[in-house]
């Protein structure tokens, strides 16, 4: 008799992977433009800080767990993110790179900012007859005590896919956390920027809902 496999959990626990993150900053020097590329293809939790920025779930007990995956990414190493929450409600998690920062006062004013991120929704709830689901991703930057978000894309399948947020301007960003100006400052007067991304999830269902994990 085959051993029983613990395939179901009682909470929504989407399991996603992030394999490659690219940031391209186009900045202004005098009347000329140049581009600077920040890239992390060897994703490691030691280089990233993840924190819960929003929790509107009924129990106010949402959490995000991160761990390292070393093979099977795109192509190899990736960060695994697990959203744990009970509906109805939503959560939003910020992921900030310690290695991707930019200081306009020193490096020059920014023109536009482009994000690219490879993601995988490992245990999409559409498996096994469960209702379809999605995990949202947004571009994020931290500046002057405020966290800003821009864009909105979703992952719905258990395959690696590239999401891109191109040519973002200050007016594309919205302040979602902290006490700071309404818009980020791309000018030569701008404070230090830390770059990252947001992952989010939610459910309109009450109580606990199963998610296929195996």
How would you explain this protein's 3D organization?
By secondary structure, the protein is an all-beta fold. The chain has one domain (9-205). The chain is built from one helix and 14 strands. Strands 2, 3, 5, 6, 8 and 11 form a six-stranded antiparallel beta sheet that branches. A hairpin with a 2-residue loop joins strand 2 (15-29) and strand 3. The longest helix has 4 residues, at 104-107.
Nutshell version of this structure?
The protein has 214 residues and is mainly β.
Write the layout of secondary structure elements.
Elements: E1 8-9, E2 15-29, E3 32-40, E4 48-55, E5 63-69, E6 78-84, E7 87-102, H1 104-107, E8 109-121, E9 135-143, E10 146-155, E11 161-168, E12 174-178, E13 193-207, E14 211-212
Antiparallel strand pairs: 1-14, 2-3, 2-6, 2-8, 4-7, 5-6, 7-13, 8-11, 9-10, 9-13, 10-12
Please report the total strand number as a whole number: 14
Number of structurally distinct domains: 1
* Class from secondary-structure proportions: mainly beta
- From the spread of the alpha carbons, the general shape counts as globular
Keywords:
disordered C terminus; 14 strands; disordered N terminus; six-stranded antiparallel beta sheet; 1 helix; mainly beta; 214 residues
């Amino acid at each position: 008799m085959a051993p029983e496999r613990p395939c179901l959990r009682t909470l929504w626990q989407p399991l996603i992977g992030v394999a490659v993150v690219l940031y391209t900053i186009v900045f202004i020097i005098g009347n000329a433009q140049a581009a600077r590329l920040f890239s992390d293809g060897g994703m490691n939790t030691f280089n990233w800080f993840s924190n819960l920025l929003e929790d509107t779930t009924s129990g106010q007990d949402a959490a995000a767990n991160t761990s390292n995956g070393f093979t099977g990414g795109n192509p190899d190493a990736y960060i695994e993110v697990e959203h744990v929450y009970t509906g109805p409600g939503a959560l939003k998690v910020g992921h900030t790179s310690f290695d991707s920062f930019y200081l306009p006062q020193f490096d020059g004013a920014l023109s536009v900012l482009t994000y690219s991120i490879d993601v995988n929704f490992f245990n999409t709830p559409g498996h096994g007859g469960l209702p379809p689901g999605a995990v949202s991703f947004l571009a994020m930057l931290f500046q002057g005590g405020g966290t800003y978000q821009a864009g909105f894309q979703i992952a719905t399948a258990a395959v690696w896919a590239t999401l891109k947020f191109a040519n973002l301007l200050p007016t594309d960003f919205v302040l979602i956390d902290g006490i700071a100006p309404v818009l980020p400052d791309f000018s030569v007067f701008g404070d230090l920027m830390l770059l990252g991304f947001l992952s989010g999830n939610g459910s309109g269902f009450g109580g606990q809902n199963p998610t296929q994990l195996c």
